């Protein structure tokens, strides 16, 4: 096979939707692992795990029911419930009444939980700055938007009436 024929074949393989899906999935799985390692490194000095940080982070702006945290994070309610119960037991979060639903209490961070998350901010800012410098700010923003669009498109797959997600 000539170099140009090989290039054309490889180029077309890179545009094949099934190949793109496989490559995207493998890359996201790898990214997930990389983010988990970095998150553990950032959270450890604050006395948190990546999972604890993730759940606390989901309720920093406003208290949410466990099911709402699970939806926002794209994980099961049961795994969020386990972490939420640990956070409450450790004094990093608390359950408060939910005016919209008597049985589904809201989870919110305590002052101690907010302080723990705040300890992560300098390392988080350093990593964000490093990535922005490595990729360039525009490319970093473009990458994040592409990942968000991919997530939206996968959400839409579950909805038979959904239209394909298109770039704005």
Automatic annotation (TrEMBL):
GO terms for molecular function: DNA-binding transcription factor activity. InterPro entries: HTH_MarR-typ, MarR/SlyA-like, WH-like_DNA-bd_sf, WH_DNA-bd_sf. It holds the Pfam family MarR_2. Gene3D superfamilies: Winged helix-like DNA-binding domain superfamily/Winged helix DNA-binding domain (1.10.10.10). Residues 18-152 form the HTH marR-type domain. GO terms for biological process: response to stress. It comes from the Bacteria. This is MarR family transcriptional regulator. It comes from Streptomyces alboniger.
């Amino acid at each position: 096979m000539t170099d140009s024929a090989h290039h054309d074949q490889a180029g077309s393989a890179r545009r094949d939707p099934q190949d793109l899906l496989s490559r995207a999935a493998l890359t996201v799985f790898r990214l997930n692992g990389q983010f988990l390692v970095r998150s553990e490194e950032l959270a450890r000095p604050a006395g948190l795990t990546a999972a604890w940080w993730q759940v606390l982070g989901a309720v920093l702006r406003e208290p949410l029911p466990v099911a709402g945290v699970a939806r926002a994070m794209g994980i099961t309610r049961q795994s969020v419930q386990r972490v939420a119960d640990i956070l409450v037991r450790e004094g990093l979060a608390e359950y408060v009444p939910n005016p919209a639903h008597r049985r589904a209490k809201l989870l919110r961070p305590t002052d101690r939980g907010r302080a723990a998350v705040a300890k992560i901010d300098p390392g988080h800012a350093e990593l964000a700055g490093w990535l922005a410098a490595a990729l360039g700010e525009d490319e970093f923003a473009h990458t994040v938007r592409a990942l968000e669009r991919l997530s939206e498109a996968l959400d839409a797959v579950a909805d038979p009436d959904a239209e394909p997600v298109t770039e704005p």
